[in-house]
Amino acid sequence: PVPVRLWWAPPLSPFGLLEEILWQDEWKLLVSCMMLNCTTRLQVDRVLWRLFLLAPTAADAVELGKTPEGLEALERVIAPLGLHGKRTENVVKLSADVEAQRAAHGGRIKNVSACHGVGVYAADAHALFIDGVLAGPPRDHALRWYHAWAQERRERQLAAERDARRPDPSS
Question: Which of 50, 112, 127, 164 has the fewest CB atoms within 10 Å, i.e. the most exposed one?
């Protein structure tokens, strides 16, 4: 996929969030958020990469969702997370929405919240890692850690820049 933003790259934190790894592909970031719902990062790590091998793009997920064999293949990969029928259906619907928005808006997702299955957590993750903005602290605990870390990092950078511009009192 084409990088989402040529001018933005989220700083890497010590937390190693999936969003930090997947920020260059909006669809993969949203799918990872969907998979993390009601489960743990460890469980998702065991499934997510196999899912992306089976369906590397939103278009691939939509195509798999068109046949019983494709849906069954997706379900087999997602099954260890539980709710595999519902999760599979949600991934296919999300993927179709992503593809529709990309087609309508020059390859970008214009309204992430309008995509199927995108809740507060995924919208916050998208705003933080894809758009590079977030008005307030996110509601998810891991995103709050990242937001606080990134904010503190930025404040240190600004302070260092101010200090560098200050005239040296000893000269």
Answer: 164
**Does 140 qualify as catalytic in the annotation?**
yes
Residues 92, 143, 25, 52: what is their CA dihedral angle, to the nearest 10 degrees? -50
Residue 156 in tokens? 């240190």
Terminus-to-terminus CA distance in the chain, angstroms? 53
- Are 139 and 122 in contact by the 8 Å Cβ rule? The answer is no
Whether 101 contacts 115, CB under 8 Å: yes
58-72 tens-digit pLDDT: 999 999 999 999 999
Q: Which of 28, 36, 57, 40 is nearest to 126 (CA)?
A: 28
Q: Kindly name the residue from 60, 97, 140, 168 that is annotated as catalytic.
A: 140
| pTM for this predicted structure | 0.89
